[in-house]
């Protein structure tokens, strides 16, 4: 997993410090190769740090800056079954790097109308990346999160997403779950923290759908 978010939430949620000596930040600047840290159960992590938020400004004059991550992971693809990239919640240079380096895109959408506002812009960027930088990029699916089937608002958003992305929406919706909020505070994933929770059940369902789509 590659933490490409300057908030370093993934890094800290897995129990790593956001102040490690080598992170994705230095690798993006060309100071060293991808720093890969072993976690557990066959999971490896490329951590982030708070300094990563400044990398866009620091690389503004760098030629081919949108291809940096693609070059970094090129030599790593054969070593792993899957490489997951956690993106920042904005259409930045970091997000562009992730889109350029990826084969498939998972789009998480909170079950709220405001969360839909940025979708049109995101799809414009995705289409441009497909045309100009990465023709292999495809949408694996749209993932609806923070869902409560008892709320009409959540149901309406789900229906709108289904209409907008026909055939590209995961049938599994990730429900609201206290365990999902608690797990990162313990430096654990949901499967270790609360394996019988609704959150674990939902994400297992998403994984199964994704594996079916890939195969």
From TrEMBL:
Could you tell me what this protein is called? Sporulation initiation inhibitor protein Soj
Transmembrane spans: none
Which family does the record claim for this protein? Belongs to the ParA family.
Q: Which organism is it from?
A: uncultured Anaerotruncus sp
Domain annotation AAA: ranges: 1-139
Reactions the enzyme catalyzes: ATP + H2O = ADP + phosphate + H(+)
Outline the subunit composition: Dimerizes in the presence of ATP but not ADP; ATP-binding is required for double-stranded (ds)DNA-binding. Interacts with DnaA.
Kindly give the CDD domains that the UniProt entry links to this protein.
ParAB_family
Q: Which Gene3D superfamilies match?
A: P-loop containing nucleotide triphosphate hydrolases
PANTHER family attached to this UniProt entry: COBYRINIC ACID AC-DIAMIDE SYNTHASE, P-LOOP CONTAINING NUCLEOSIDE TRIPHOSPHATE HYDROLASE
- Pfam families assigned to the protein according to its UniProt record, in alphabetical order: AAA_31
């Amino acid at each position: 997993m590659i933490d490409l978010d300057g908030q370093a939430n993934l890094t800290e949620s897995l129990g790593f410090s956001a102040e490690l000596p080598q992170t994705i930040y230095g690798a993006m600047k060309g100071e060293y190769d991808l720093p890969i840290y072993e976690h557990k159960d066959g999971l490896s992590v490329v951590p982030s740090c708070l300094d990563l938020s400044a990398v866009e400004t620091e690389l503004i004059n760098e030629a081919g800056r949108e291809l940096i991550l693609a070059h970094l992971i090129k030599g790593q693809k054969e070593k792993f079954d899957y490489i997951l990239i956690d993106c920042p919640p904005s259409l930045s240079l970091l997000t562009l790097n992730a889109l350029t380096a990826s084969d498939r895109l998972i789009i998480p959408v909170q079950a709220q109308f405001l969360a839909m506002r940025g979708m049109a812009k995101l799809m414009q960027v995705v289409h441009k990346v497909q045309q100009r930088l990465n023709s292999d990029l495809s949408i694996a699916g749209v993932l609806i999160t923070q869902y409560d089937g008892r709320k009409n608002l959540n149901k309406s958003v789900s229906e709108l997403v289904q209409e907008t992305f026909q055939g590209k929406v995961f049938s599994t919706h990730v429900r609201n779950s206290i365990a999902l909020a608690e797990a990162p505070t313990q430096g654990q994933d949901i499967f270790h923290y609360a394996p019988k929770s609704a959150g674990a059940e939902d994400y297992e369902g998403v994984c199964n759908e994704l594996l079916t789509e890939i195969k």
